[in-house]
Design a protein that fits this description.
Blueprint: E1 12-15, E2 26-31, E3 35-41, E4 49-54, H1 62-77, E5 86-91, E6 94-96, E7 101-104, E8 111-114, H2 115-122, E9 127-131, H3 132-143, E10 152-157, E11 161-167, E12 170-171, H4 201-205, H5 207-218, H6 225-233, H7 237-261, E13 265-269, H8 277-290, E14 299-301, H9 308-332
Parallel strand pairs: 2-5, 5-9, 10-13, 13-14
Antiparallel strand pairs: 1-4, 2-3, 3-4, 6-7, 7-8, 10-11, 11-12
Bound molecules: zinc ion.
Zinc ion (ZN) binds at residues 183, 193, 195, 197, 200, 202-203.
């Protein structure tokens, strides 16, 4: 192990509570902009202690550093006599889950990295690569608010806005670009966005945008969207205006999603969804007024929790293994469906 950016001494641990059901024991990893989370998930599907370690520094070598950290954590997480059969690795940025090719990470600085090949060369286990929002979405579909549905959209309203799209029970990947609705324009000539455009969904309806716009318009610096909701509830008209724009942008964006794939449910997660009825009430009403031709999809709050990405990694690892097992059985000509 040559990498020095990962500091095991700073590793923190806690325990996940949601089980994913019986199956092969696997290792699950969720790489975020600041932290890598990792857990061993046993044959009952119960995740053990979650280890956390800092993500590597921004730069082109961050991809190799991530895989080195994964190898190191895998060794520490594997219990004696219960070897995992596969590993799920969820990554941020633009990632093609099907090929394991990562085009870009804004937070960690890699570009055009073949993670599938990198993992094959450094890890002894079969690896399933996932994308953060789609992995969290997969957990939401199997364990959370999307359960029982086949066509659904899981939207994360956090620092940015992104979605996981599931059609007929399958995630839509599109080389890693599916669900990137954050930079779709919803308010023409609206708020300037970091991408250079104006009126992007992310520029008005992300949790970060709500806090930023309110701070600027009111002259009172707030740390997050929660304070804006509190101000609105207390009668602050600037807060109400900022919130209305956020709801309007989101309603427009979701109306297009509903028109295009008619999801059975739209799941909303991330910081803004924590506003509860302050968000869901006006959003349902506005969406209903916009959708005159297709049914209005139910809006529900995400339920898979803060470790959804990690649980999604474990689910992806299990699925990859199932496909491998199916193929090898087919190769022997003994598998009958
Ligand atoms: Zn944008």
């Amino acid at each position: 192990m040559t990498d020095t950016t990962v500091r095991p001494a700073g590793t923190a641990a806690d325990t996940a509570t949601t089980a994913i059901g019986p199956g092969a024991p696997v290792l699950a990893f969720d790489v975020g902009g600041t932290t890598i989370k990792a857990a061993y998930v046993d044959a009952d599907g119960v995740p053990g202690t979650i280890l956390r370690t800092p993500s590597p520094a921004f730069g082109p070598s961050s991809a190799v550093a991530v895989v080195d950290a994964v190898a190191e954590l895998a060794g520490r997480l594997t219990p004696p006599g219960a070897a995992p059969r596969a590993l799920g690795l969820t990554l941020p940025g633009i990632v093609d889950d099907e090929t394991g090719f990562a085009t870009y990470s804004e937070n960690l600085g890699w570009r055009d990295v073949d993670f599938a090949a990198l993992c094959r060369s450094r890890l002894a286990l079969p690896v399933a690569i996932g994308h953060d929002v789609r992995s969290g979405g997969t957990a939401e579909m199997e364990l959370g608010a999307g359960r029982g549905h086949r066509t659904a959209v899981v939207v994360v309203l956090g620092t940015g806005v992104s979605a996981a799209v599931f059609v007929d029970g399958r995630p839509v990947v599109a080389r890693g670009y599916a669900g990137e609705i954050g930079h779709a324009v919803v308010i023409p000539r609206g708020e300037a966005c970091v991408c250079g455009n104006q009126g992007c969904l992310e520029a008005v309806s992300s949790a970060a945008a709500v806090a930023r716009r309110y701070s600027r318009m009111s002259g009172r610096e707030v740390a997050g969207a929660r304070e804006v909701v509190e101000a609105m509830a207390a009668g602050d008209t600037i807060a109400a205006a900022v919130w209305d724009t956020a709801v309007e942008g989101l309603a427009l964006g979701l109306s297009h999603v509903a028109s295009l794939i008619q999801p059975e449910v739209i799941v909303l997660g991330g910081g803004l969804a924590e506003a509860g009825d302050h968000l869901f009430g006006p959003l349902r009403a506005r969406l209903a007024s916009l959708l005159t031709y297709v049914p209005v999809p139910p809006l529900v709050k995400a339920r898979a929790g803060e470790n959804a990405g990690l649980l999604g990694s474990a689910l992806l690892a299990r699925r990859a293994l199932d496909r491998t097992d199916d193929r090898s059985t087919d190769d022997r000509g003994t598998h009958h469906r």
